[in-house]
Amino acid sequence: MNPGLLPATGIGLLGGVLVGMTGVGAGSVIAAFLLIAYPSLSPQMIVGSATAQAVVMKLFAVGARRKMNLREMRLGLGMAAGAAPLASAGAYVSHQLHATVLKPIMAAVLALVGTILVIQSIRRWRAAEPHVVADQDPGVVKVGALGSLVGFIAGLTSIGTGTLFVSALAGPLRVDAHRAVAAALVAGLITLVISAITHLALGHVNAALVVGTCIGSVPGVLLGTWFATKLPAQSLRGAIGGGILVAAAIALASLR
Questions:
Q1: Residue 177, class by beta-carbon neighbours within 10 Å (0-12 exposed, 13-18 middle, 19+ buried)?
Q2: Domain coordinates of the chain in residue numbers?
Q3: What are 194-239's pLDDT values in tens digits?
Q4: Rounded to an integer, what distance in angstroms lies between the CA atom of residue 224 and that of residue 246?
Q5: How far apart are CA 119 and CA 109, in angstroms?
Q6: Stated pTM of the model
């Protein structure tokens, strides 16, 4: 089946702008709305296509927003070392699951990511407690272990490489927020590449869907990066989280 390009391009543009502005939500926003816009496509095809386009979009996002230094790169590579193999395993598991099983899993992960974004936005808005940063970098075993969990989820659903990586680094690992975002970009990009290759080998990638989404997401992420200096990103993250929760609810309702 060749899906129409217009819905995919519009979804890519929306997702790209939001990701460019906030640095999170690439897989969550785009996978959520592709799931709703193309109900006749298998969830495996949605996951694989969303993952493939996310590689292209994240390459442009990294180039537009970040220059990695050695310390950030070390953290990112450490997390990717745990995440990449499990991302491939997650993609393989998705191949084995029936659509009636995979769709609720995707909706549940979307709900988790949306909730995390809303909670993070509320906490930063209230500024209730200062974020405690560790005196030294976490051990490689901890970084790799948390990376493997996120990698499996990302390979299975294409969701969470930005939000969950940042949450793991800045949360339990107590890495400075700016370094967490930079390291998550490195880890996420490597994880997405491995996951996309696996999905491609399994036949989960629809070329028309990837091209259509990239047509919107690449200029979108560049435009969003330009907007990032002009609008409050933290408030927008909460709004994105709320939108993802709505998309998760719609995805769940469509299963009935």
A1: middle
A2: 5-253
A3: 999 999 999 999 999 999 999 998 898 888 777 766 666 566 666 6
A4: 22
A5: 15
A6: 0.79
In one letter, which amino acid is 253? Answer: A
Residue 152 predicted with pLDDT over 60: yes
The number of beta carbons lying within 10 Å of the beta carbon of residue 145 is 13
Report whether pLDDT(1) > 60.
no
Query: What pLDDT is recorded for position 70?
Result: 43
More confident: 232 or 156: 156
CA–CA dist 91, 71 (Å, integer): 30
Other residues' Cβ atoms within 10 Å of the Cβ of residue 160: 30
Q: Rounded to whole angstroms, what are the CA distances from 252 to 21, 203, 241, 255?
A: 28, 25, 17, 5
Encoding tokens for residue 182?
């930079």
The DSSP result for 135-199, as a single string, is: SSPPPHHHHHHHHHHHHHHHHHHS--TTHHHHHHHHTTT---HHHHHHHHHHHHHHHHHHHHHHH
The CA-CA-CA angle for residues 19, 24, 25, to 5°, reads 80
Helices (H), the chain: 5-22, 26-37, 43-65, 70-96, 99-126, 140-157, 163-170, 177-201, 207-227, 233-253
